Amino acid sequence: MRRTVLGILAALLVLAATACSVTTNDPGYVAPPPLPPLEQLERAALVDPAGYGAGQDVLSFITEDRNIVCSLTSAKGEHINLPYEQNSFTDSANARLATVPVAHCELAAYPKPAAADTKDDCAGTGLGYLGGTALLTPDKATYGECRSGVTRMEATYGPKGSKSGPVSELPVLADGANLERNGLRCSAYNHGVACGNVSGGVAFFVTRDHYEAISRPAETAAPGPSKDAKSP
Asked: What is the domain extent for residue 74?
């Protein structure tokens, strides 16, 4: 009887020891820095795009902090097909223009574009080039645009935003997730969004207080023979 009781107690002690574990924090642990935008876009796992379809062959999402809305969509010239902004993408007058895949983002809170990044003189006025938007084509990334007033994102989640409307109804792209359409990718990470053409080496990264327009440097051509070199 005594052996039986001791056996039961030993079994209970083994179960208790194996069922419980203690986790301790390493005070010396330093989290690795975020990947550069192009590496993030290349390495992050792609998510199923089915949940992000906004109609008319467009994938749209909003970030968890409700500061950035993006669409992987198409453009004809300067006319971008965005489901939450008025646009002329489908106008018959634009039918002759080539359709190009693009990624477009709008921010509720955003940095001012640097003077060197002002890509348009806004009809010769030099006024009205504002931040809060980023555009990626297969071979170019830009930040800012000529406009008057606020974007739909700023009107929804900016300081005086309504917090309602089409932008508020879009699905959230989780932090670290990666979405792709027609060779272009967007990933929500590092408190912002990166969109890029990985194979082309171009991308942008935007947050509420920082932006980057990234272009991978062209490969340096092999040097030719010296002028003094002589053939044997």
From this structure: 37-215
58 in helix, strand or coil?
coil
Any domain includes 45: yes
DSSP strand E in the chain: where? Answer: 59-62, 68-76, 79-80, 99-107, 129-137, 140-146, 178-181, 184-189, 192-197, 202-206, 211-215
pLDDT 10s per residue in the chain (232 long)?
Answer: 555 555 555 555 555 555 555 566 677 777 788 999 999 999 999 999 999 996 678 999 999 999 999 999 999 999 999 999 999 999 999 999 999 999 999 999 999 999 999 888 898 887 789 999 999 999 999 999 999 889 999 999 999 999 999 999 999 999 999 999 999 999 999 999 999 999 999 999 999 999 999 987 655 434 444 434 333 3
Cα 187 to Cα 36: distance, rounded to the nearest angstrom:
12
Is residue 31, in this structure, part of any structural domain at all? no
Residue 82 CB neighbours (<10 A): 24
Predicted TM-score (pTM) of the model is 0.81
> What distance in Å separates the CA atoms of residue 138 and residue 200, rounded to the nearest whole number?
7
Domain membership of residue 115 (yes or no) is yes
The closest of 196, 202, 188, 87 to 145, measured between CA atoms, is 87
Longest dimension (CA), the chain: 102
- For residues 56 and 107, what is the distance between their CA atoms, to the nearest angstrom? 23
Strands (E) located in 139-183: 140-146, 178-181
Contact 49, 60 (CB under 8 A): no
Closest CA to 205 of 193, 217, 215: 193
CA-closest candidate to residue 180, choices 52, 34, 36: 52
